[in-house]
Amino acid sequence: xxxxxxxxxxxxxxxxxxxxxxxxxxxxxxxxxxxxxxxxxxxxxxxxxxxxxxxxxxxxxxxxxxxxxxxxxxxxxxxxxxxxxxxxxxxxxxxxxxxxxxxxxxxxxxxxxxxxxxxxxxxxxxxxxxxxxxxxxxxxxxxxxxxxxxxxxxxxxxxxxxxxx
Length: 165
What we know:
The chain is mostly helical. Helices cover 47% and strands 8% of the residues. It has helices spanning 8-16, 36-45, 49-57, 72-79, 82-90, 105-111, 115-124, 146-160; strands at 2-5, 23-26, 29-34. Helix 1 (8-16) links the parallel strand 1 (2-5) and strand 2 (23-26). The model is unreliable at 16-35 (pLDDT under 50). InterPro entries: Ankyrin_rpt (IPR002110), Ankyrin_rpt-contain_sf (IPR036770).
């Protein structure tokens, strides 16, 4: 069943109104077809705090996994969406959930050089020593490289101290 909406907020309202398995196409973004299973991840990856709040208020599972075994916190960490990260942390999301290649949200924040996001995750209790499948701790991932990566790592060390060996 295909229905149309005029905005992503309208799309989410349609989804939470009981059409959980129906696919919906949003007219303002004709390529987006979502269902309730992935709307949490979509909201996190697009930094749509309004959609996240609506979904949470309707009882959405903020620890639901997608096909890559990622939860919405992985997406928010990858994009550095501090507002969405705070929203998820306030609602008790899992901090150290690994995706299918072993990366936690902290790995992805560091990989993308989102230092403020990494610090927020560490302060909330993220495991700085957890290894991914490549045997890399979050602060050891190569990421974007260059000066941006070095600055992010330095900011994390200045804000949180050095990682325990």
